[in-house]
Every structure is written in structure tokens, then in C-alpha cells.
Amino acid sequence: MKVSSKGEYALRALILLGNSQGSVLSIQEISDKTLVSIHYLEQILLQLKKMGYVTSKRGVKGGYMLHKKAAEIHLGEVIRDLEGPLSPMACASITKYEPCPLEEGCQLKPLWSLIRDTIAYVLERTTLEDLLENRILLQKGEDFVVVKRTS
Question: Is DNA-binding tagged as a keyword (predicted)?
Fold first, then answer.
């Protein structure tokens, strides 16, 4: 799995909109604060709108705002919707599996599956709210990331 600029910019926009919960932000404001061109941002926000993550308001004071609560936006879903499967290889994908002629007895497939499962585990359990509340922590001396919730 590789997160493209589209995926990163979409997450940047969602974070900005989440931090401005309840306020409508113009595309110019979003562009200025995320450093994404208006043209590219229009395409991304249109996709996010079609997927139900954001809504738009027309007019002079128009712009974008979150359509869902930040706690309801799971990063795994956003990334899958924008980028496709989380698996690094098609032979290990659950949603877009493609057979490989070397698959039988392949000693790499368990690695690709572990990577897929690890990525999915973290992204599916992480919400936009977790990012907004700075709950993503790298544990000192550990090799994994933890989402800390107070509830």
C-alpha cells in the first residue's frame, strides 16, 4: 500500500475541517492552510463529498465542512475509498485479490498478509477525532503505535 498525495491531501483537508468543526471554510482557506492547489483540492473535496465525509455550502460565504462527526470518520475507510486496498500486494489483498503463479508455497505471502493486517488494524481503529486530539503516540522503546483514548 502506498498513500498517494491525494490520500495525504484529503487527510490534511479533513483535519483542517475537523479543527474548524461547525465552521464553513472556503476552498481558498483550505488551500492556503494545507498548501494544496485549489484545482487539485477541488477534485479531492468533490470525492470526499461524494463519499459522504464533507458537505458544501454555496454562495459568497460558501465552502466546505465535515458531514460526519470526527469520531465517525475512520482513516482506514477514507484511505480505502480514495486509494484502494490496504494490502501491499494483490495476492494478499482481501478486497482486490489477484492470484499469482508463484503463490502456492510462496514464503513472501505471509509477510504481505501480516503487513496488510497491521496496516488495517491501525487505520481501521484510528478516527479523525484521534488525530485531532493527538492520540497517536509512538511508545518510547517500543516498535508500535498506540491510539490512547481516555474513555
Answer: yes
